[in-house]
Amino acid sequence: MSALHPIQSLPAHPRLADGPVIVIALCADWCGTCREFQPVLERIALAHPEMVFAWADIEDDAELVGDIELDSFPTLAIFHHGTPLHFGASLPLEPVVTRLIRSAAATPAGAPRDIPAEVLELGARLAG
Predict the structure, then answer these.
(1) 111 pLDDT exceeds 60?
(2) d(Cα 58, Cα 20) in Å, to the nearest integer?
(3) What's the pTM?
(4) Residue 24: its pLDDT value, please?
(5) What is the CATH topology of the domain spanning 4-127?
(6) How many angstroms separate the Cα of 17 from the Cα of each of 12, 14, 57, 80, 107?
């Protein structure tokens, strides 16, 4: 079983009630870097079972993801209790991504500045 969930499964995910940190990779099927990133994020997800990891194709999953504008692929969105802790592009460099996720998860609650409204809305939808 994969530790990297399709984003469509998140609204019904049983662990969301526990308020875990949620890490979402916003990608596109046509993006080669995203394809390289998927196994990296899968390994990170397996190493951090206390968090919930999801994969979203911004075109196929547009109904749930919304109209988020991305400057680059892949982009990570990290939430806790619906509040964004991080939103930004990432390369498939496992040690760097691991450090980024751990750092974001340790950040006190409160949305960082410059988070697009669409990302705030996604966090609210996932938090219920």
Answers:
(1) no
(2) 23
(3) 0.88
(4) 95
(5) Glutaredoxin (3.40.30)
(6) 10, 6, 24, 11, 20
